[in-house]
Write a structure and sequence with these properties.
Length: about 375
């Protein structure tokens, strides 16, 4: 009987707890809904790049409200926007100011990539500014097998500034210029001619482009007043600006980034993060500006010279001459090294064809170094 009473009390307790939780969840949802509705209230005129947005037009107002709600619906993404602004906006704002462009254009970078260096699209756009390869090359950026400067904010932003100037000179308004940035200037001009309308808010454009300017407007409103939209971040929550020094590296041959990292008293990842435009594991031969941690600048060139010389000597002692019947897989298996490492050391692809007499560099695993070195030295003589 006692057990039955306790069971009944437990059921009642659970029911009460669920009721309390349900009430709290309902209250929280009501607060969230109120916050979303308040975000749509427009106490002041809406503008972008100094141009008034005609939100008194019901259709324009609806398009604006949709982008505000979509943005606010992804709160984790908004938090990342906000945290990244302190890392990247100072440089972007400086470039815009130096070139006499509206400060609001910095929000284009969030709309395009959420301020991610390696953001890419299925159409081939890349980087913070989501430039297509042909556009990037047109405005002076290198995009090839060794470098993709679209991934580097400090190289791509000057190109984008020039591009935006060209667009504004062509279309005469920032809303149209941003639309052209999204869909291409030729396509936009064709629609203007066909429709006989030169007002972005009245043009029928690809759906993505119809949303694009409103997405930027929504981002601007949220970033300029985060607390109003339910985001309260303390000063320490924001990401610190990147701090690095730039050194000139003169390479007569492709240079392993691991050597640059060691010479800079840092690690491979840091070098890649500071130089996102460098593709793969090597710096292509030539003269190149490379960003490294500031505390690794002193003595960098002397250390790098010594490391390059030492690496060249070691590589010359780690040469394997390909024999009949060898394959990349069998060679990797023979020396007990990952096939992927073999490909990296020799700058070749998985589908590369090797032939007898070809020389491959191999760094045997530490546990097998002695035996493997004998095999390599013996093969060199043949």
């Amino acid at each position: 009987m006692t057990g039955t009473i306790w069971s009944t009390l437990a059921v009642y307790a659970i029911a009460i707890l669920l009721c309390v939780l349900s009430t709290r969840n309902a209250a929280a949802q009501e607060i969230a809904d109120d916050r979303l509705l308040s975000a749509l209230q427009l106490a002041q005129p809406v503008s972008l790049c100094g141009e008034t947005v005609p939100v008194d037009d019901p259709q324009v107002r609806e398009r604006f409200e949709k982008e505000m709600l979509v943005a606010l619906g992804n709160r984790s993404q908004v938090i990342l926007w906000l945290k990244r602004t302190t890392r990247y906006f100072p440089y972007i704002q400086g470039m815009l100011s130096e070139n006499g462009l509206p400060d609001d254009l910095k929000y284009l970078a969030i709309a395009e990539s959420a301020l991610r260096m390696h953001a890419g699209s299925s159409k081939g756009a890349m980087g913070v500014w989501q430039l297509m390869p042909q556009t990037a090359r047109k405005y002076g950026l290198v995009v090839d097998v060794n470098f993709d400067e679209r991934r580097n904010l400090y190289r791509s932003t000057p190109a984008v500034v020039t591009y935006l100037k060209v667009l504004y000179e062509r279309f005469g308004s920032w809303s149209l210029s941003l639309a052209a940035y999204n869909m291409g200037e030729e396509g936009l001009e064709a629609e203007i001619l066909e429709q006989g309308v030169s007002n972005y808010y009245q043009l029928y454009l690809p759906l993505e482009t119809q949303r694009f300017v409103f997405r930027i407007i929504a981002i601007k409103r949220i970033v300029e007043a985060p607390q109003t939209h339910g985001f309260t971040l303390a000063a320490h929550d924001f990401y610190a600006p990147e701090a690095f020094s730039t050194v000139q590296v003169n390479a007569f041959t492709d240079l392993p980034l691991r050597l640059i990292a060691k010479a800079a008293d840092t690690d491979f990842k840091t070098v890649k993060d500071f130089n996102p435009e460098i593709r793969g594991h090597y710096l292509a031969a030539g003269t190149r500006a490379v960003n490294i941690p500031s505390d690794g600048e002193d003595g960098f060139h002397d250390r790098l010279t010594a490391m390059v010389e030492a690496d060249a000597k070691i590589r010359s002692q780690r040469v394997y001459v390909v024999k009949d019947g060898d394959s990349l897989s069998s060679i990797a298996q023979k020396f007990e090294v990952p096939l992927a490492a073999l490909l990296i050391w020799n700058r070749i692809g998985l589908s590369s064809v090797i032939h007898p007499g070809q020389r491959l560099v191999i760094f045997p695993a530490a546990g097998k170094m002695k035996d493997d070195l004998k095999d390599i030295e013996g093969d060199q003589s043949g």
